[in-house]
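[Automated response] Your request has been received and processed.

Submitted sequence:
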Amino acid sequence: MEAARTRGPDEKFCTQCGEAIAAQAVVCPKCGVRQVAGNADSFGFVVAPNGKSKLAAGLFGILLGSFGVHKFYLGEIGWGVVYVLFCWTFIPAIAGMIEGILYLTMSDAEFVARYGQVRPA
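Generated structure:
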């Protein structure tokens, strides 16, 4: 029986082979697969360097998209206000549902590139 693998405080698991590697590693030394920027949450979805979760953005879009919660969460305040102003038309609800599904189905690298920038305060 194989022992459970553990990782140290400065390590992460390879996205391909599961080997514990250095947290800053770009390529896994065991299998050679390039690692996605950002960490994974407990469900395996990527968490961008600015702390935005792909899973949270997707669920906010699907469940609360009519009020633009997903837009506020991702830092798109202007679009969030537009969604709130037009929530009575149900158009933002449909758009939010579609955007939530798109967030959940886009690749981790694309999510980090599009929504993962750390913005200056």
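Summary generated for your ticket: The chain has five helices and four strands. The longest helix spans residues 91-105.
If you did not submit this request, please reply to this message.
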